[in-house]
C-alpha cells in the first residue's frame, strides 16, 4: 500500500491591499511527521484531516499548514495532484490569516484577523479571542467556530463599554450567533451600535 508523509509546518497567511500570500516555515515542524498508508485520494484526505486535528489539539494556538508528501519510491494515486491543488487534503484549514494594515474604525481599532472555524478573531492591537477550557455564554452560539466565538465576544465587549454596564449581547437579542454579520465582515462596533439602536431584530440576528 502506498506510503505518505504528513507534516505540520508553522505558517501564516497575510492580506494586503492588492495581494494575499502565505509564509511557510518548511524547515520547522510543529510536531514530528507521521507516515500513513492509503490507496485513494479520499483516504489520504481523511487521514490528513485527522492529523491536522491532532496537531491542533497538541498546539491549539499555533498557525500551521499540513503537507502531504509521497514516500520515496512510491507512485501517486490517480487524482493526487488535482486534489492537492484544490486543497482537498485540508492543508490550509489551520492557517491564521492576518490583515497586515487593518483599516481603523472611526471609533477605534480595525480588525486584524477575522478568523474562521479553526482560527481566532482579533482586533488590531489586542490579543486574539480564544475559547476557554470551560464553556461560557458564547460557546453554544458560536457552534464550534473559533472565529465566530471571538467575534461575539468583541461585539459583547463593545455593548458593555457603550452602556457602561455588564449588560450583555444576550440581553439585547434572543437569537445568537450573528452569523450573517460575521460572514459579511461587519465591524463589531457597527453591530453593537445597530443592536443598541434596536435596528437588528432577533429574527435577523439568527440568520
TrEMBL record:
Q: Which domain of life is it from?
A: Bacteria
Protein name, entry field: Uncharacterized protein
Q: State the organism of origin.
A: Gluconacetobacter sacchari DSM 12717
Amino acid at each position: 500500500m502506498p506510503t505518505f508523509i504528513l507534516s505540520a509546518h508553522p505558517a501564516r497567511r497575510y492580506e494586503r491591499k492588492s495581494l494575499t500570500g502565505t509564509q511557510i516555515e518548511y524547515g520547522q515542524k510543529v510536531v514530528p511527521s507521521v507516515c500513513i498508508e492509503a490507496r485513494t485520494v479520499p483516504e489520504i484526505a481523511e487521514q490528513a484531516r485527522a492529523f491536522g486535528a491532532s496537531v491542533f489539539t497538541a498546539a491549539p494556538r499555533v498557525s500551521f499548514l499540513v503537507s502531504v508528501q509521497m514516500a520515496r519510491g512510491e507512485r501517486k494515486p490517480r487524482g493526487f495532484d488535482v486534489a492537492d491543488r484544490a486543497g482537498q487534503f485540508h492543508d490550509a484549514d489551520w492557517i491564521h490569516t492576518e490583515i497586515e494594515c487593518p483599516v481603523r474604525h472611526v471609533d477605534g481599532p480595525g480588525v486584524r484577523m477575522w478568523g474562521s472555524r479553526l482560527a481566532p478573531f482579533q482586533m488590531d492591537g489586542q490579543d486574539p479571542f480564544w475559547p476557554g477550557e470551560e464553556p461560557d455564554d458564547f460557546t453554544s452560539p458560536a457552534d464550534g467556530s473559533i472565529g465566530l466565538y471571538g467575534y461575539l465576544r468583541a461585539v459583547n465587549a463593545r455593548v458593555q463599554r457603550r452602556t457602561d454596564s455588564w449588560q450583555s449581547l444576550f440581553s439585547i437579542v434572543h437569537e445568537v450567533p450573528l452569523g450573517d454579520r460575521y460572514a459579511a465582515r461587519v465591524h463589531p462596533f457597527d453591530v453593537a451600535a445597530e443592536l443598541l439602536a434596536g435596528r437588528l431584530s432577533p429574527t435577523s440576528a439568527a440568520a
